[in-house]
């Protein structure tokens, strides 16, 4: 009797699915990160040994920037397959003013943010240098220390501490070495602020069910800042030299002299909190909200327009609340 199983074929195990290649990392940041860390360590040692005035804070800031970049180098890149070529830096720099949609769509594929950040940092440094020269270090330091002394207990330090603070601030604004260090610390602070803002945007997009890579949102943040900073700093420089120095405020005009908001209707000395609230109602603020919303929508892998608007408006409201609370605690600084 012949077996009925002669043609039986044993069950074969299906081939295992091919593993997707790991997403690329931003490894190009690592040499810069190591360089910043080593330079920061050297400046920190110079500050501790009193060889570099103010070197402790600058060294710590550079070291922190190096550690931050090392951590960022492990964040996966989007890795979207496309045949579209990346826009040149010049095309993105000019296009963000008159065709932002095209720039943001390209940033979704190639989220390169360094160029925008460098332009923002350079414009900020130029304006800050010109502002100090125009207002004079003496007036800036005198205003700051006077307002600190007026805070009263428990915020105001003792008189001897205020005098030491005055000497330190004067040295920071007059000593060339410390002025360079101030630019370095300000640039690092600006970068950290951008990274923190990008993290908040990423969290907001995820809450609204969107999908976006951190590098995409970081590029969207810096490129949405770029036109605002350019308008504020370039026009602010012109106004800085058109107005008399005594008509400029040592604190309120540190970022820009451009006044395109309703804050011009209120005196900061008489109604500081209301002045701050009205200062958030202006053309550049609305421009930033719109540009950031569009950036998140078009730069993200899957972000609806309503989600982009919601996140952008939420950030605007959070900043306004923070500024209002800070002003209510220390109203004398803007008087």
Written account of the structure:
The structure is a single chain. The chain is mostly helical and 335 residues long. The chain folds into two domains: 24-76; 87-334, no CATH class. Helix content is 66%, strand content 0%. It contains twelve helices and no strands. Helix 4 (100-109) runs antiparallel to helix 9 (214-242). The protein is globular, with a radius of gyration of 26 Å. The termini are far apart. The mean pLDDT is 88.
Task: Give the structure's gist in a few sentences.
The protein is an all-alpha fold. It has helices at residues 29-48, 55-72, 89-98, 100-109, 114-135, 137-149, 159-174, 176-207, 214-242, 272-279, 283-299, 305-329.
Indicate the topology.
Elements (H helix, E strand, L loop, with lengths): L28 H20 L6 H18 L16 H10 L1 H10 L4 H22 L1 H13 L9 H16 L1 H32 L6 H29 L29 H8 L3 H17 L5 H25 L6
By DSSP, the count of extended strands is 0
Helix percentage = 55-70%
Poorly predicted spans: none
Tally of separate helices: 12
Net shape = globular
Strand share of the residues? under 5%
Total domains: 2
Rg, rounded, reads 26 Å
Mean pLDDT: 88
Task: Summarize this structure as a short list of keywords or feature phrases.
single chain, 335 residues, mainly alpha, 12 helices
């Amino acid at each position: 009797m012949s077996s009925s199983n002669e043609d039986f074929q044993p069950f074969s195990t299906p081939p295992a699915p091919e593993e997707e290649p790991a997403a690329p990392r931003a490894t190009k940041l690592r040499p810069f990160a190591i360089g910043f860390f080593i330079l920061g360590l050297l400046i920190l040692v110079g500050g501790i040994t009193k060889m570099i005035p103010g070197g402790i804070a600058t060294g710590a800031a550079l070291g922190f920037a190096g550690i931050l970049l090392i951590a960022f180098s492990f964040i996966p890149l989007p890795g979207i397959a496309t045949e579209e070529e990346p826009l040149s830096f010049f095309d993105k720099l000019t296009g963000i003013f008159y065709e932002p949609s095209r720039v943001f769509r390209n940033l979704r594929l190639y989220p390169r943010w360094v160029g925008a950040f460098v332009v923002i940092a350079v414009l900020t440094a130029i304006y800050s240098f010109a502002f100090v020269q125009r207002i004079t270090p003496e007036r800036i330091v005198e205003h700051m220390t006077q307002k600190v002394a007026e805070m009263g207990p428990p915020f105001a330090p003792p008189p001897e501490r205020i005098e030491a603070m005055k000497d330190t601030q004067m040295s920071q604004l007059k000593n060339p070495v410390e002025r360079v260090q101030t630019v370095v610390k300000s640039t690092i602070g600006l970068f950290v602020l951008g990274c923190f803002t990008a993290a908040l945007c990423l969290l907001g997009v995820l809450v609204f069910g969107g999908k976006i890579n951190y590098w995409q949102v970081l590029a969207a943040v810096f490129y949405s800042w770029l036109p605002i900073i350019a308008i504020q700093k370039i026009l602010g420089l012109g106004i800085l030299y058109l107005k008399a120095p005594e008509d400029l405020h040592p604190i309120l005009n540190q970022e820009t002299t451009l006044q395109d908001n309703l804050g011009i209707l209120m005196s900061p000395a008489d109604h500081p909190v209301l002045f701050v609230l009205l200062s958030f109602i202006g053309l550049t603020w609305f421009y930033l909200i719109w540009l950031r919303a569009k950036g998140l929508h078009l730069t993200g892998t899957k972000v609806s327009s309503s989600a982009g608007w919601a996140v952008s408006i939420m950030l605007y409201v959070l900043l306004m609340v923070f500024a209002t609370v800070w002003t209510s605690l220390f109203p004398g600084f803007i008087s």
